[in-house]
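Support request, please re-run this one:
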Amino acid sequence: MRCLSVKAQTQGFTLVELLITLSVVGIIMAWAIPSMGQLFERGRVRGIGEEFGAVLSLARSEAMMSNASVYVQITAGADWCWGIRDSATACNCKAANSCTVRGQARQASVVQYSGITMNTGSFDMIFDSRGTVTATAPVEFQSGKTKGRVSISAVGRTRTCSDDLVGWLPLASC
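Re-run finished. Output below.
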């Protein structure tokens, strides 16, 4: 008599294996999710700092190119904004197309950057035709616990820094 051997083939996972896998994934997610929030905060602060530094560089280059003064208006508070203009007439950076340089709107506000606060007083900077600037106060941005700062030298050079972002996507310490 011939004996047939039937090997049981198992497919899939057992319930125990599935529960262990889901537990490990749950632990990893519980550890990673708070870090993701900090990552997003850091990215927002770094992004707005670099963008504001670029705005100041644009104002400086426009002043030198047009051989005339260019004005940067910074309005602080809960509904902060900034705008650059090529006329001495004040603009309202909260109103659309109010701040212009050569006919193009050059402004931004808290509306475009939700979750970002500006921890600076309101002031104006004036870039003259040589690219030098009248006010050199730093502008500080914050998202959650993460802060970043944009400083400008008397000759109009910008520097973005943060003590909270050192070692994360290279940004100089303040």
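Residues 41 and 144 are 7 Å apart (CA to CA). The two ends are 88 Å apart (CA to CA).
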